């Protein structure tokens, strides 16, 4: 039995760098990637912190890229030696939702590294990973263009998640407000700038995050230093934002989004909600005619658009990387990420 090294979640707050069996293909649509880069995502913190209960000894990680080393007999788009990035979500491609062009609502959706409840796929914080339904789930990494490997790494999740949150409700010239300047929020702000927003406002309480938002062309608003609603209304002749992105996934962020949106505007939610219910000012939302959209991102629908924008230099999510570490340092990396000591950590499975 061949073995490999991987990041294993033993229990909440306990991640180990350990030796496990190297994965094997089980379906003709599978490929095996030799992972070259992988990252820690905010969603990984849900099982790490115990907010999602998953079984012990799960291989974590759903942001990764690498080189194809094995190809199933039914795979038509990839051959051994191709370099590729995988969507964090694997869809079936055949159900009602997939056929309707809405794969995020696929009844068979699976997410890497989040346990049996979300499909039982081993994650990509490892030396090797199996990618099912590879022709749908993966994209080749372009060999020319402005995008680096670090940029393309994030097309499988945070960059495309932030992009879709804006794109699905966007009209050129809109004012876009983003609540939360974490990686997804900053990717949403970057996307709004690239798509042609008239102005982009980012609300947060962390000065370093707001400085990064301003560096990508947004207006930073510190919620500890003033009322974000006043700031947004001052910029929009007291109408409010056309689109508000809740990139946090917390009731307080959504309440803020409700205050920032104009009558007839949109609230788009890429933030992850685990609560069964929260309090909302539903009467106000109804009177203002605000639409709310959210859910798991349609990654495969937008990866090609995002890759194209990365490749011409319009999107450069690699600027969000704060730390590069070896996979062998994964225990420390998770502690840093949990303690908000890092914006984005990229791990090298070879180290």
UniProtKB/TrEMBL annotation:
Gene3D superfamilies: Medium-chain alcohol dehydrogenases, catalytic domain, NAD(P)-binding Rossmann-like Domain. Residues 28-136 form the Alcohol dehydrogenase-like N-terminal domain. Its cofactor is Zn(2+). Residues 183-296 form the Alcohol dehydrogenase-like C-terminal domain. Pfam families: ADH_N, ADH_zinc_N. Keywords: Metal-binding, Zinc. InterPro entries: ADH-like_C (IPR013149), ADH-like_N (IPR013154), GroES-like_sf (IPR011032), NAD(P)-bd_dom_sf (IPR036291). This is Alcohol dehydrogenase family protein. It comes from Nocardioides dubius.
């Amino acid at each position: 039995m061949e073995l490999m090294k991987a990041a294993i979640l033993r229990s909440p707050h306990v991640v180990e760098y350990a030796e496990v069996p190297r994965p094997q293909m089980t379906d003709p649509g599978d490929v095996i990637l030799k992972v070259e880069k992988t990252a820690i995502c905010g969603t990984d913190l849900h099982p790490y912190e115990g907010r999602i209960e998953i079984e012990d000894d799960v291989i974590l990680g759903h942001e990764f890229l690498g080189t194809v080393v094995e190809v199933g007999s039914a795979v038509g788009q990839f051959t051994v030696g191709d370099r590729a990035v995988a969507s964090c979500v694997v869809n079936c491609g055949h159900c009602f939702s997939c056929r309707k062009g809405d794969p995020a609502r696929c009844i068979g959706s699976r997410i890497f590294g989040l346990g049996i409840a979300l499909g039982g796929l081993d994650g990509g914080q490892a030396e090797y990973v199996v990618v099912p339904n590879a022709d749908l789930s993966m994209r080749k990494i372009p060999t020319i263009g402005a995008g680096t490997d670090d940029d393309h790494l994030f097309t499988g999740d945070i960059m495309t998640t932030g992009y879709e949150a804006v794109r699905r409700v966007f009209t050129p010239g809109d004012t876009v407000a983003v609540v939360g300047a974490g990686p997804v929020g900053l990717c949403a702000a970057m996307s709004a700038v690239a798509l042609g927003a008239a102005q982009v406002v980012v609300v947060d309480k962390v000065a370093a995050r707001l400085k990064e938002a301003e560096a990508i062309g947004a207006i930073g608003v510190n919620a500890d230093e003033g009322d974000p609603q006043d700031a947004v209304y001052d910029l929009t002749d007291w109408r409010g934002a056309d689109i508000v992105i809740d990139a946090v996934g917390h009731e307080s962020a959504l309440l803020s989004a409700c205050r920032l949106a104009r009558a007839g505007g949109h609230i788009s939610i890429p933030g992850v909600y685990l609560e069964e219910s929260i309090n909302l000012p539903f009467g106000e939302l109804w009177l203002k005619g605000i639409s709310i959209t959210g859910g798991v991102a349609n990654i495969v629908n937008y990866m090609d658009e995002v890759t194209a924008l990365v490749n011409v230099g319009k999107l450069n999510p690699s600027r969000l990387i704060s730390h590069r570490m070896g996979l062998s340092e994964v225990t420390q990396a998770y502690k840093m990420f949990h303690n908000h000591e890092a914006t984005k950590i990229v791990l090298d499975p070879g180290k």
